[in-house]
Amino acid sequence: MAIPPAGNGGNIRCGPVWQAGIIACMSEFRGMNDPSASEQDGFGAIPRAKRVPKERTFHGDTFIDQYEWLRDKQSQDVQDYVAAQNRYCEQRMAPLKSLRKTLFEEFRSHVQETDMSVPTRMDGYWYFTRTMQGRQYATQCRVPIRGADDWDPPTVEAGVPLDCEQVVFDTNAEAQGHDFFRIGGMDISKDGRWMLYGTDTTGDERYDFRIRDLETGDELEERFEGIGGACFTPDAQWVFYVLLDDAWRPYAVMRHRVGTPVTDDVEVYRETDERFWVGIGLSFDERNIVIGTGSKTTTEVLMLPVDTPEGSFRAFIPRETDVEYDVSFACFEGAGEHGEDIPLAVVYHNALNSNFEIDVIDMRTHEPPYRLGEGVRVAVGSPYGCEHGDDVDPGASSMPIGTPYSNPCNPAILQGAHGLGIEGISIHRHFVALQYRAESLPHIAVMTKRAAAEDFLAGRPWRFTELVPHALEDDWDVDESVDEINEERAEIWGKLDAAAAAQGKGSAVHGVSRRAMTSSDGATADRMPGETRRLYSIGVGGNPSYDAPRMRYSFASYTRPGELHDYDPDTGEDRLLKRATVLGGFDPRDYMERRVWVTARDGERIPVSLVWRRDVPTCDSAMFITGYGAYEISSDPGFAVSRISMLDRGVLYAVPHIRGGGEMGRAWYEQGHLLNKKHSFEDFIDATRALQHAGLASPLRTVANGGSAGGLLMGAVANMAPECYAGVEADVPFVDALTSILDPSLPLTVTEWDEWGDPLHDADVYAYMKSYTPYENAPDSENDERTAVFPKIFITTSMNDTRVLYVEPMKWLARLQHAGVDAVAKIEVEAGHGGTSGRYKQWEEVSYENAWCLSMMGIGS
Hints:
Elements: E1 38-40, E2 45-47, E3 54-58, E4 61-65, H1 76-93, H2 97-110, E5 115-116, E6 120-122, E7 125-131, E8 139-144, E9 166-170, H3 171-174, E10 182-188, E11 194-200, E12 207-213, E13 224-227, E14 229-232, E15 238-244, E16 250-257, E17 266-270, E18 277-282, E19 288-294, E20 299-305, E21 314-315, E22 325-332, E23 342-349, E24 357-362, E25 376-380, E26 421-427, E27 431-438, E28 441-448, H4 449-458, E29 465-466, H5 484-501, E30 509-510, H6 514-518, E31 531-532, E32 537-540, E33 551-556, E34 563-567, E35 574-579, E36 591-599, E37 605-613, E38 621-626, H7 641-648, E39 651-656, H8 666-670, H9 678-693, E40 697-707, H10 709-720, E41 727-731, H11 737-741, H12 749-756, H13 763-770, H14 774-777, E42 792-798, H15 807-818, E43 823-828, H16 839-856
Parallel strand pairs: 38-39, 38-40, 40-41, 41-42, 42-43
Antiparallel strand pairs: 1-2, 3-4, 5-7, 6-7, 7-8, 8-9, 10-11, 11-12, 12-13, 14-15, 15-16, 16-17, 18-19, 19-20, 20-21, 22-23, 23-24, 24-25, 26-27, 27-28, 28-29, 30-36, 31-36, 32-33, 33-34, 34-35, 36-37, 37-39
Pfam family, one: Peptidase_S9
GO molecular function: serine-type endopeptidase activity
Protein name: Protease II
C-alpha cells in the first residue's frame, strides 16, 4: 500500500522596452591555460573556459569539441570553473535582489503555509499530510478508521491534531543535517505496523531504503542502498527491490526475506535488453507482485501471486516488439448467470491501434497467458495521422490528426472526438472510470459498476457519462455579457486575426474573433474547435481502495486552483472535498484563459494556451512562452502560485502544445520525435511568431522557457529564430544531445534511442541530430551574424543530475560566452534533476528565475 506523495501546499504596469547592454570589445585572449581566466563585460568578470580541442568522428564526420574537458567532474579545473561561473552569476543577479525578494514575498503571501490534505483511506487508517508555517517539508500522518463502513474522511483542521493522530513520517526531522532531501517511495504493510521507505540526500536518484516499526519507531538492521525502488508484500514478510546499473538503468529485481541478511537476497529477474527499464509493485487488488519492464516502445508485465513469494514470475502476455500494454484485475460481483462473480482482466494496449484500446477479458473462459486483442473492446483511439494508422483504416495515416473519429464499439461520448487517445480505465467495486484525451485536453468519464456489467454481458457500448468541472458563478467562461474592456479587446483581436491569417501559413491565429470571445464553448461539431474557452486538467485520483463507494477526482486550470471532489455515480452527487487556498485577495475571475490554434509552416494546426489578467489589454505585451514537446508528455493546464506575479505585471503567459508531446494522442508524439523532431522546434517558433505578428506580444519583450528536453527545445529555437526572443531560460537543458546519444555508457543513452534515434549505428540519424543539437549549432564566434541578435541566456543545472549531466549545459555556456553571447548559469552543487528540495528553497529558486525573466521583459519591480 503506497502512501500518496505529499504536496506543498495587483496592479499592472508595463515597464519600458528592455534594451540590450553594450557588449564590451572582446580581446583575443582565450584563457587556453587558465580555466578561470576572465574578461570584463561591464557587470563583472566573465569566466572564460579554456579551449582544448578534441575530435569526435562518426560516419565520416568530424566535430572539434573545445569543451569536452568539462566532463571530468572531479577535476580541480572543472570545480574552479563551476565556482567561478556561480560567482559571476551572483554578480549579474545582484541588481535583481530587491525584485527577487519582492517575488518571494508575493509567492509566500498567496500560500496558506499551515495546511493539510484531505484524508485518504487505505486499509485500517485515514492517511493525510500536514504542512506547517516555517517548515520546509510536509509531515505524513494518520488516524484509525472508525469502522468497516467509514468512508467519510475525518475533518482535519490546520494546526489542530485529531484524536489518535499518529505521525507516520516527519520529513523535517528526517532531513535535518542534509542540504538536499527527497523521499523515494513509502510502502506500509496491510496491518499498518511496518513502513518501508527510501530517501535520497544527494539528488542522484539512488535511494536508500529502510524498514521501520511504526509502533515503536525502531528500524530493522537491513538496509537497501542505492536502489531504484522497493515494495512490501502485504504481510511485510518480503521486500522486492530494483537494482540500478552504472548507467542508472533499473535492470534487476531482488527478493529479500525480512529479518535475514541482505547478502542472502536472491535475484528473481534480470532485464538484459539495455533499452528496457524495470519496475516493481503490487497489483491494485494486492493479489500479485508485478514486474513491469519496458522501453519507450515495448512493454511487458510479469506476475507472481503474493501467497507464493518464492515462486517464479510469469509473463501475463509475452512481449511483442513495438507493442505497449498494461493489465489490471477486477470482477463483476454477482453478475454471473447463477449469481457468481465474473473475474476480469483489463488490458490496455496498442497492438491493434497506435492510440490504444481497452479490452476486458472474462477470465472464466481460460487461464493465462492471454493474447492482445482478446476480450470485449470497451474503447479505442483514433488512428488518424498515426504512422500505422493504415493498418486500422486504409488512408488513416494521411488524414489530419484532428479529423473527427467514430467507432461503433466506442461509448457515445467518444463518437466524433478530435485527436482521440485512450489513456486508461479503473474498475472498482462500485464504479468504473475511463480516462482519455480529445480536443487536446484530458477527460474523464464514469458509470456505475452495475451498468458496466449489464453493458458487458449485453455486448453493447458502455454508457459512460463525462465529468465536467463546475463553472464559477459569474465567471467569464459562462457569462454572456462582455464588459467594455472585453468589447475593445474583441474588436482588436478580431482585426489582428484577420490580418494575421492573410499572411499565410505559419502566422495565422485562429479563434480570436469577437464572436468567439462571447461564446460559451467555441467548439463546433464538424471541425477542430477554433477556440477552447474552458481549459482544465482533470483526472481520477486518490482512490487506493477497491471498495470505496464513491470516486475521487481532481481538476485545476491555469486560473483556478486545484480542487478535489467526491462523486457518487449512482446518485450524481458531487461533493467538493477541498479547494486549494490562495491567499492575498486572489480571485480567478480576474484572469482569463483560452486555447487558440496556430497554423504551423507545414499546415498542421497547433493548440496554444494563453493566460492573462482580465483588465489588461493584450497588445504588444511582455510574453512568457514555455514548452516541452517530448516523450509524449502533455503540457496540460495547471495552477501555479508563482504565475500570479507575472500575470499581475501584465505578462501574457503562453504554452504552445507542440508536436512531440501527447496532447493530440500518439500521432502528435510520432510527428515530433525521431526524424520528425524538428517539428517540435518549428511549432514553437511558428506559435511565437504568430502571436507576435498578431500584435499580442513584442519580440523585444518575449522570454522563452523550457527544461530538460524542453531545454533542448530552448537551445534549438534560440539558434533557429534568435530574433524572436529577448531572453531564454533553459533549465537542466539537454543541449549536447548528439554527444550524449552517441555514448551508450552514459545514463539513459540506450533507452533514449527510441526517442531520438540511434546516431551511433545510423548515419541518417547522426546527420539529422547534428543539424539541430543546440551545442554544436550555437554561435562559436563573434562573427556569427546571429550573435548580434541572440537572446540573453539564463541556464540552471545541477552537479548531481543523472538525467541531464551537468557537462551539457556547461559546455553550451562556455561556447556561448566565447561567441560573445550574454549567458549566465546558476549551478546547484547539492541537487539533482528536479532542482533543490524543501518548499521555501524551491520558492526562492522560482523567484530567482522569474526575476531574471521579468528583467528581460523590461519589468523591474
